[in-house]
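The following record pairs a protein chain with its ligand, adenosine-5'-diphosphate.
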Amino acid sequence: MEHLKVLFASPEALPFAKTGGLADVSGTLPRVLVEAGHTVVVAMPKYGAIPKDLLNGAIVAAEWELDWPLDPEPVRLLRLTPADSPVTYLFVESERYFERPSLYRDPATGKDYADNDERYILFCRALLEGLRRIGWAPDIIHANDWQTALLPTFLATLYKTDPFYAYTRSVLTIHNMPFQGKFPATTFAKLGLPEALFYPTGPFEFWGDVNFLKSAIWYVDAITTVSERYAAEIQSSPVDGAGLDGVLKTRAGSLFGILNGVDYDVWSPEKDRHIPYRYSPANLSGKRNDRVELINRIGLPLREDAPLIGMITRLSEQKGFDLIEKAEAELFAMNLQIVILGTGDEKYQKLLPVLERRYPDKLKAVTRHDEEMAHWIEAGADAFLMPSRYEPCGLNQMYSLRYGTVPIVRETGGLADSVVDVDADGATGTGFMFAEYEPEELLTAVRRMLATFPRKRIWREIMKRGMKQDFSWTRSAQKYINLYQNIVAR
Ligand code: ADP
């Protein structure tokens, strides 16, 4: 096996900063790659939102004024190897662009920061320049999502003839297709690239705008997305491909689906450090206790006959909230209880308290980010609902399987790749699935769950089949390694 030097660039990574599943992936995959014998450095911005104590021990690896199309900007590259970590981190520090309370959105306006183009252009340019300054040329630069997408783009343009990067290959992982880094045409001048590269249907142009993700799809050596089903879906139509289906199809031979894994040290009922009672497939009594604790904590009446359905999610249309809104009356007429943990679109943040008042014995909504509560729900709920419009991978359905919390999911993306539909007599399958994005289909899946829940022996078998599924990172990490080796050899 060839030893690889990998720079894994991500706009968010645990334990430092998280808004979604990408932070889980960036927190775990690099560690597993190191365990497989490779050197991995994770690069991310030094956000003001990162708790200061997590940065203890960071040293200044490079400090300079970045020369780019805007005024020269003071930047620093910080290096940190936390005491218990096999992974080294590089943080791009810029007082002006990253010392802010949140990652992408201005809390004052609820909108994306107006200078997000400059922030991530600076991140990518400072990182590539910083690596030269510290003299570390990776074999692979692995970019994640639009914020880091300019890394492969700059490698193939600004640094095309730079001997320092002559042996560096690039990978782009797309975690969510509609998030592309689209900016007005005036942004192009901030990239520092020849004007001739900005032309209709070219690498950067997208309906008159500049599109960071498109440029990376164009230039990068290999593309991955986070499930096989989603890799096929994003090429299949302009809706699923969010307008980039055409460009993706031109790269079909270099586009692969690799399912995200689960960190079972954090997400398993045997080891969970957050939940009141631990349990295992051999002894499920802890789960019954966790259910009672959860229901008491959120303040719903304790009902043995009504399954408790959990949701942990961004409150957005992607996650199926418009379906729930449409199915509301019939859904809450059923013999069930629902707990929702989520933050997101104002529309749904406002809707949930209204629904809570309408169905006080049936619904609790916790509208904040709460890591501990997420674990309590995985452990204490009977079923878990993910009616996503689209779902690149999704993590919570895989967590739910491990916790014996039976998923109810729409058959899309990573949900389709990780859950198997329960058959008519409950003898096979791990969850309840529905195909079309229609309220009636969602309701039918929930009814099937409700009909199965009282059949205790069958229900327990479904739980146990789910708990035995293995979505650990080892297999997926090996797929990334194979991909890296293939493009390095080329
Ligand atoms: P996405 O990245 O599209 O939001 P994923 O299912 O891939 O969806 O990942 C979401 C991650 O964020 C999961 O780890 C989930 O537990 C977590 N999460 C989402 N909302 C909350 C919340 N309000 N509190 C705690 N954890 C949350």
